[in-house]
Amino acid sequence: MADAQVEQMPAAPHTLAPDNVPEPRVQVNIDWSQVDLDSIELPEGEDFGILSDDDQEEEEILETNTGFGNIVVVDNLPVVAPEKYEKLEGVIRKIFGQIGVIRERGLWMPREDGGEGKTKGYAFIEYTTPQEAQTAKEQTNGYKLDKSHVFAVNMFDDFEKYMKVPDEWVPPEIKPYTPAENMLAWLTDDRGRDQFVIRFGFDTEVFWNDARLGKPDPVYHRSFWTESFVQWSPLGTYLATIHRQGAAIWGGGQTFNRLTRYIHPQVQLIDFSPGEKYLVTYSSHEPSNPRDTQRVTLNIFDVRSGKVLREFKGSADDFATGGTGGVAGVSWPVFRWAGGREDKYFARIGKNAISVYETETMSLLDKKSLKVDNVMEFMWSPTDSILSLFVPEGGGGNQPARVSLISIPSREELRQKNLFSVSDCKMYWQSSGEYLAVKVDRYTKTKKSTYTGFELFRVKERDIPIEVLELENKNDKIVAFAWEPKGHRFAIIHGDGPRPDISIYSMRSPTNVGRVTKLVTLKGKQANALYWSPIGKFIVFAGLKAYNGQLEFYNVDELETMASGEHFMATDVDWDPTGRFVATSVTSVHQMENGFNIWSFHGKLLYRLPRDKFFQFLWRPRPPSLLAAEDEAEISKNLRKYSKKYEIEDAEQYNLSSAQDLEHRRKLIDEWKSWVARWKQMHEEEKAFREDLRDGEPSEDEEDLETEEVEVEEIMKVEEEVISYGFEQE
C-alpha cells in the first residue's frame, strides 16, 4: 500500500453536549489510484485496536453480557404432562407478557423424551429488549404461583458468569500500596487561589484563577474526558464525568486520578448528596411499545465504594410529579436531600404523598410515605431536616391552598399558612435556613389577572411568625428573587417594561428589628437576574441574553454602585466560592464571542479567555470553614493586621512580574539588534552584486546619483468613429 497520511479526529460517542458542538470531521489526504484495497487488513476487535482515552487510564475487567441480555430463565415451574402443556404456557405468557413484549417463539419450556414428554420445570423467555428482561427478573423473582411453586428468575447471562467460577478458591493478588494524592491539597495553595473547570468542544481544562498575573494558570487538560458534561461534588472533593458505561469521579489538585467508577449504562444525569456520601444516577430508555412511556432507572451509589445501595425503576410518569426541568418529562433532581452534611434523609414527591427515605437502611422512613393530598411541590431546609410543601386549592376552590413546614422524622407540622385565590406558588429558602420566602401569585376578584405578594417565614424564631410583603405596585411582574447568603436581606427585580426596578429589603434593621424593611428601590435597571456574593454584602445585577450582558456591581452595605460593565451576549454569571471574583461567560448558545471573563468583586475586568464552542464553566466549591463564627468575626475585625502579609506578597509578586517584564523586553531588544546586525552583514556581502547592477557605479548614496527624466508616449486605446458634418444628402 502506498504511503498515505490520514488526519482523523476520534469519533465521539453519543453525548448530551450542546447541539451546536459539531460532529468530528475526517480529513483524508490519499491518492486512491495508488491504493490496493485488497491488501488492507483491519485490526481485530470492535474498536479495531484503538483504545479509548478512558480505557488507557487503567486496564480493568468489566462485566459484559454475552448477547443474550434479553433472555430470562424461570425455574421452579410445575412439571406437567403433555396434555397440560398449552395451559401452563398460557399462564406463563399471561404473567410475563404484562411486563414486556415476548418475541415470537420467545417462550420455550424444555420437555422430556425428545420434547414429547413432561416439562422439566423451567423455561426460557426472550423479550425484545434487555430492559424488559431485567424488569421481569426484578418483578417476578420470588413470585408465588401456588404453595408449591415459587418462581426463581435469573438472567440467562448470569449462568455463564457463575459457570466460570473456579471450584477452588484462589487468593486475590495483593497489589503494592501506592500513596495517593491528598484530596484536599488544592485547599493549601500558598496564594489562596481557587480552581475552575471549563468545557469547550471535546476538551476539558482545569485552571487556577491567578488574578495577580492577570491570566489563568493551567492545571490539567484532557480531550474526550467526558461524553457530555462535568460536575464538581458539593464540597469540591471530586470531579465527576459521564460515560456510556456510567459515571466516574476524579480527585486531587494537580493529577486528577480516577478514584471510582459507577456502572450505569447510558447514564444521563447525576446528583451528589450535600455531604458527598452518595451519588444518584439517572437514565431513561425507549419502550418497545410506542404507546408506552419511557422507562426510567435511578441508582443510588455509595461514593467511596461504588456499590449500588438502592435502585428505583419505573415509567417516566412515575417520576414526573413536581418540580421543573430534567429530561423526558422527569423533574430533576428526582430525589432531594435533607439539609446539612449528615446526608441522613432524602425524599421524592409522588401522587398525594412525599416519600422520605433513611440513608442508613435506604428504605422508607417508618415504612410509609407522608400522605399529603394534592401536594404540588416540596423543598428541604438547607440546614435542617424540615420540609416545606405547597398544596394548591382543592374542592373547586372551597379548600384553600396552603404552605406547611414539617419536621422530620417526627412528621410534626411546625407551621401552616392558608392561602386564598392562589394561581401559583414558589418557595425560596435562605441558605442558613433562617428564613423562607413564598412568592404567591393570586387572582384578582374578576379572575382575569393576577398579582404577586410574598409570605415571609422567620423559621428560627419562636412560633415561626409570618409577615406579608406586597410591592407598592401589586401588578408588577416579578422577574427575579434572591436571598443574601448567610444574611438577612433579599433583592427583587420587578416591573413589566424593558427597564424594571430593583428593590432590596431587610428582615431586620436597627430601627425595626422584627419587621421587614425596604432599604432602597433602584429605578429603570437593565437587569433580569440577581447574583449575590457567597459571603453577602455585594450583588451583581445582570442583564443576560436579551439585555446583551449588562452588569452592575452593587455594594448593599453602602447602597451604592461600585462599577458597571458589559460582557456582550453573556449567558451566565458565577461567583467564586470566596466572593472575591466573578466569572461571566458566553456559551455556545451563541455562535460568536464564546469564552469567559473574570472580574474582581468590585467590577474591575481582570482578564478574558476566548474559547470556541465553549459551553461550561464551573468554580470548584470549597468546604465550609473550620473556624467558629467568633473566630471569623475576630479576623474580620482585625483584617488590616492580617492583610499586611498579603500586601507584602502582592508587592513582591508585582516586583517579580515587573522584573520578568523588563527581562522579556530586554530579550526582545537583543533579538532585534541581532536581526539588524545580520541584515547589515548580508547587505555588505552583496555590495559587489549591487554595484554590478548599477553598471559599476560604486556609490549607494541617493544624493550622488543623477536623476534623468524620460518621457514615454504609449498608445492606450484606438477607436474609429464616423463623424457627421451635416453635408449628407437626403
TrEMBL record:
Annotated SMART domains: RRM
Compositional bias per record (Basic and acidic residues), positions renumbered to this chain: 688-697
Q: How does it assemble?
A: Component of the eukaryotic translation initiation factor 3 (eIF-3) complex.
Which SUPFAM superfamilies does the UniProt record give? Answer: DPP6 N-terminal domain-like, RNA-binding domain, RBD
What name goes with this protein? Eukaryotic translation initiation factor 3 subunit B
Q: Does the keyword DNA-binding apply?
A: no
What's this protein's function?
Answer: RNA-binding component of the eukaryotic translation initiation factor 3 (eIF-3) complex, which is involved in protein synthesis of a specialized repertoire of mRNAs and, together with other initiation factors, stimulates binding of mRNA and methionyl-tRNAi to the 40S ribosome. The eIF-3 complex specifically targets and initiates translation of a subset of mRNAs involved in cell proliferation. Component of the eukaryotic translation initiation factor 3 (eIF-3) complex, which is involved in protein synthesis and, together with other initiation factors, stimulates binding of mRNA and methionyl-tRNAi to the 40S ribosome.
- GO CC terms of this entry: eukaryotic 43S preinitiation complex; eukaryotic 48S preinitiation complex; eukaryotic translation initiation factor 3 complex
Looking up Pfam families in the UniProt record yields: eIF2A, RRM_1
> Its family?
Belongs to the eIF-3 subunit B family.
Which Gene3D superfamilies does the record associate with it?
3.30.70.330, YVTN repeat-like/Quinoprotein amine dehydrogenase (2.130.10.10)
Which residues lie in Acidic residues bias regions?
A: 698-709
Organism of this sequence? Riccia sorocarpa
One GO MF term: translation initiation factor activity
Q: Which GO terms describe its biological process?
A: formation of cytoplasmic translation initiation complex
| Cross-referenced InterPro entries | EIF3B (IPR011400), eIF3B_RRM (IPR034363), Nucleotide-bd_a/b_plait_sf (IPR012677), RBD_domain_sf (IPR035979), RRM_dom (IPR000504), TIF_beta_prop-like (IPR013979), WD40/YVTN_repeat-like_dom_sf (IPR015943)
Q: Which UniProt keywords apply?
A: Cytoplasm, Initiation factor, Protein biosynthesis, RNA-binding
In terms of one coarse class, where is the protein primarily found? Answer: cytoplasm
Q: Where is this region: Disordered?
A: 1-22, 688-709
State the organism's lineage.
Answer: Eukaryota, Viridiplantae, Streptophyta, Embryophyta, Marchantiophyta
Compartment annotation:
Cytoplasm
Domain (RRM): give its ranges.
Answer: 70-158
